[in-house]
Amino acid sequence: MTSQPAAAQAVTTEDFSRNLATVNQKIAEAASRSGRQASAVRLLPVTKTIEPERLRLAIEAGVQTLGENKVQEALAKSEEFASEYPTLRYAVIGPLQANKAKFVARFAHEFHALDSLKLAQTLQRRLELEERTLEVFIQVNTSGEDSKSGIAAGEVAELLEAIAPLDRLVPRGLMTMAANTTDESTIRASFALLRTTLEELRDSGAPEGFDQLSMGMSGDFELAIEEGATVVRVGQGIFGARSYPQASA
């Protein structure tokens, strides 16, 4: 990924307000460079590993959605905040084991890592029991790296058609993680492939509302916006450096 210094550790509401303003300004500038309005890009805060006490400060500063990749951690937060912040939204952004689909169906509003019909069918059954719907993003491996989850770009149309009868799933778009490199042209290529894949799907009759590109993290979200991102997943830019070295969202 491209290298950008993490924001200063946010420990007060004022810190979070300042960091959010900085990220939103970068979003606006990148959107402008791509000929779009800042309102065309949604900031999805990545809140994994962040304790509830700090999250409360971030919510008071304006965070409205929590992006999580640890399902049980996210479930615990949703239960803790249920009465305090009833309008808070939850987005699961990491790979999901089928045996945890029941939890996602219970609390999540968005799932950014759908990569198989089997998982979609499991979610459908669980959502029926919960009498809920779930917005889903199909994860595409645009870098070709074995370490990345997701299906190949050429397989998306088939999966999208297969999940069409699953009425509890609301397909919203595609998601990817860029190539793990510092080479900007390679990173851009990952994002551009996702954009062109979505364009081709829309030209061939994708469902109404299937128009979102979830791509870009703290180190590369500006490049992602320039390549067409409509959702950027930012954690360190808002919360500061995490407590473990491998995090980059």
Automatic annotation (TrEMBL):
Belongs to the pyridoxal phosphate-binding protein YggS/PROSC family. This is Pyridoxal phosphate homeostasis protein. Keywords: Pyridoxal phosphate. The keyword Cell membrane does not apply. InterPro entries: Ala_racemase_N, PLP-binding_barrel, PyrdxlP_homeostasis. Transmembrane segments: none annotated. Pyridoxal 5'-phosphate (PLP)-binding protein, which is involved in PLP homeostasis. Gene3D superfamilies: Alanine racemase (3.20.20.10). It holds the Pfam family Ala_racemase_N. Residues 29-242 form the Alanine racemase N-terminal domain. The modification N6-(pyridoxal phosphate)lysine is found at K48. HAMAP family: PLP_homeostasis. The keyword Plastid does not apply. CDD domains: PLPDE_III_YBL036c_like (cd00635).
